[in-house]
Amino acid sequence: MTHDKSDPALTRYGRAMMSSTMNPAAARQVPTAFAQQHFPGARSEHAPWLRDEMLAMLDHWFDWRKRRFQSSGETEEPVAAGVGHDRLSERLAVLREALTEETPTFTPRYIAHMKSDLSLPAILGWFAAMLHNPNNTSREASRVGSVIETEAVAHLATMLGYDPDQAQGHFTSGGTVANFEAMWRARYRLDHWLAMALHISETRGERLDPFAAAHMGWDRFRDLWREHGFTETELKQASAMASNPLDVGRRISRASGIDYLGPVVIAPGNRHYSWNKAVNLFGLGAEALWSVRLDARGRLDLEDFERLVLQARDQGRPVLMTVGVAGTTEMSAVDPIDGLFDRLDAWEREYGWRIWRHVDAAYGGFFRALLDGASEAALTPDVVAALRALPRADSITIDPHKLGYIPYACGAFLTSDAQSYAVSAFDAPYLHRPELGAGKWASTLEGSRSAAGASATWLTAETLGLGPDGLGAVLAGTIEARRALEDAVARAVPQARFLPGDANIACFTLAEAGEPLSVSNARTGAVFAYFQESPAFAVSRTTLGRDCAALKTAHLAGHGGADDSDELSVIRLVVMSPYWCDPVMRDEMAALFVAELASALQAVETASVKD
Question: How much is the pTM?
Answer without folding.
Answer: 0.91
